[in-house]
Structure formats: C-alpha cells, structure tokens
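Below is a filled-in request sheet from our internal design queue. Each sheet records the structural input a requester submitted and the sequence that came back. We keep these sheets so that new team members can see what a complete request looks like end to end.

REQUESTER: design group, bay 2
PRIORITY: normal
MODE: inverse folding
CHAIN LENGTH: 155
BACKBONE (tokenized):
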C-alpha cells in the first residue's frame, strides 16, 4: 500500500512531468461547500487540483488537520467558511480565524511557508468567488513550487 507522499509523487510524475500543486480544502457545509456546489452546477471552471473536505463549520478545523495535510503531501490548504456574522454556530468562523492565525505564526517561526495556508470567507451564493479563489491559490502554489513539508521524512 502506498503512503500519501508516494501517491502524491506518482501523481506528479504523470502527464507533462511539470509540478502540479495539490490543494486540500476544509469547507463549511453551509457556505463554502454550497459555493463549490454552485460553481459546479453553474459550470464555472476552476482547476481540478483541489480536494474538498466538508465540515459543519470552519470552527471545526483543528490546526492538526492542516499540519497533517501539509505533511501528508498537499502543497496548500484552504479553509473556507461563512462570512463574519453569518456563522450558523455563532462564532465558529471567529475561532477558525484565531486558530489559523496562530498556526500561520507557528509555521512562520519554524521556517515554513505560512502562505500555503489560506482562510477565506466564501458564502453560499459566491460560486464564482470560490472558483476564482481556487484558481488564485493553485497559481500561487504553482509559482512557489512543491512544499518542503511534503518531503518523505522517513528517509
Ligand atoms: S457555519 Fe459556516 S463557518 Fe460556521
């Protein structure tokens, strides 16, 4: 059975051989997931480099999930939630903002690239905003190249 890192490496070696960033998104069920759905039903194009993990609220994103994703082979992580004041659980998105800010600071202080973790507010009616955010982040990661955190630490 392949590890996540091996699976990612295999994916990178296919096709043109050029670096294609892999992006994992933790999205709130009520807003950003609905926006992704809207983008799909509206046939708005965006890069296929993204995998979505649907959570009930951005406040449910544990920073450990983000670290595991980065160390497991993803080049960037997007957290998408409801706009401030719109969280269905009152303050989940504010908690997410605090946690992700602290995580970015920790990554920066450890010498890693904190700019691989994005937090964005995308509401259910913003399918085009979702698509443009994904496109922008994929382009951003493509220009940065592979993450050092994707290295196989067992070697
Ligand atoms: S319910 Fe969407 S961020 Fe909390």
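RETURNED SEQUENCE:
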């Amino acid at each position: 059975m392949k590890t996540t890192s091996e699976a990612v490496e295999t994916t990178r070696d296919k096709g043109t051989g050029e670096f294609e960033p892999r992006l994992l998104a933790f999205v709130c069920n009520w807003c950003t997931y609905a926006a992704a759905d809207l983008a799909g039903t509206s046939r708005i194009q965006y890069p296929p480099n993204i995998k979505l993990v649907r959570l009930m609220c951005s406040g449910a994103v544990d920073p450990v999930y983000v670290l595991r994703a980065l160390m497991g082979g993803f080049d960037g992580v997007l957290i998408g939630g409801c706009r401030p004041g719109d969280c269905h659980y009152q303050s989940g998105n504010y908690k997410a903002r605090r946690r992700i800010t602290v995580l970015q600071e920790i990554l920066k202080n450890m010498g890693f690239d904190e700019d691989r973790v994005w937090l964005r507010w995308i509401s259910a009616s913003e399918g085009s905003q979702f698509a443009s955010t994904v496109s922008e982040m994929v382009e951003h990661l493509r220009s940065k190249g592979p993450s050092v955190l994707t290295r196989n630490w067992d070697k």
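SHEET NOTES:
- Residues 28, 30-31, 57-59, 81-82, 87-89, 92-93 surround FE2/S2 (inorganic) cluster (CB under 6 Å).
- The chain has one domain: 20-145.
FILED BY: M.R.
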